[in-house]
Amino acid sequence: MPKSLKTNAKGSNLTPVQKKYHHLVIGIDPDVEASGVSLWNRHTKVLQLDQMNLWSLFGHLKLMASIATVRLEAGHLVKTTWHAGGNGMAKRVGANHEIGRQIAKFCEANSIQTELVTPLGYSSFSHEKFCKVTGWDIKAKTNPEKRVAGLLVFGL
């Protein structure tokens, strides 16, 4: 399993927060159907949000591998989780965790600089709160996966 902070393809060590990221940072909230994906440009301060299935995401990551850092929400790193939704919800969460593991393995196999981030509670952000925090246009709809992905990278 990859460490929470990886070195880049050239093997350089990741140091303080402002130095460890490329100027483009990709945030990913893994999901079985379509993962939330964001792109934060640290120079222009522009945030983009999208959703991608696993195969499209792998293609996107391969294209961006040498110019972007990935921040992946890694719920699978949390050892114990209680789910109010019962067995069905637990199965869905387990499937999403496996997608996260596969994304982490793909990044490691392709020498993509990756930071695994344990959940920070961003899934509780409403559309309105997300827009207030990020300046996102209130009329441009978001969903929970896009919001989590965006919050993983916003402001870095």
Short description:
By secondary structure, the chain is an alpha/beta fold. The protein has five helices and five strands.
List the helices and strands and how they pair.
Blueprint: H1 17-20, E1 24-29, E2 35-41, E3 46-52, H2 54-64, E4 68-73, H3 86-109, E5 114-117, H4 127-134, H5 144-153
Parallel strand pairs: 1-4, 4-5
Antiparallel strand pairs: 1-2, 2-3
Give a verbal description of the structure.
Strands 3-2-1-4-5 form a 5-stranded mixed beta sheet, sandwiched between helices. It has helices at 17-20, 54-64, 86-109, 127-134, 144-153; strands spanning 24-29, 35-41, 46-52, 68-73, 114-117. The chain is built from 5 helices and 5 strands; from the N terminus they run αβββαβαβαα. The chain is α/β, with parallel strands linked by helices. Helix content is 37%, strand content 19%. β4 (68-73), α3 and β5 (114-117) form a beta-alpha-beta unit. Residues 1-15 and 86-91 have low confidence and may be disordered. It has a single domain (18-153), classed as 2-Layer Sandwich (Nucleotidyltransferase, domain 5).
Number of domains: 1
- Helix count equals 5
CATH architecture title: 2-Layer Sandwich
The parts where pLDDT drops under 50 for at least 5 residues are 1-15, 86-91
Given helix and strand content, the structural type is: alpha/beta
Q: In one word, what is the shape? A: globular
| Average pLDDT for all residues | 84
What is the number of strand segments? 5
Name of the CATH class: Alpha Beta
Radius of gyration: 15 Å
- Beta percentage is 15-25%
Helix content: 25-40%
Strand line-up of the largest beta sheet:
3-2-1-4-5
CATH superfamily membership, which one? Ribonuclease H-like superfamily/Ribonuclease H
N-to-C series of helices and strands: HEEEHEHEHH
Let me know the largest β-sheet: 5 strands, mixed
CATH topology: Nucleotidyltransferase, domain 5
Distance linking N and C termini: 25 Å
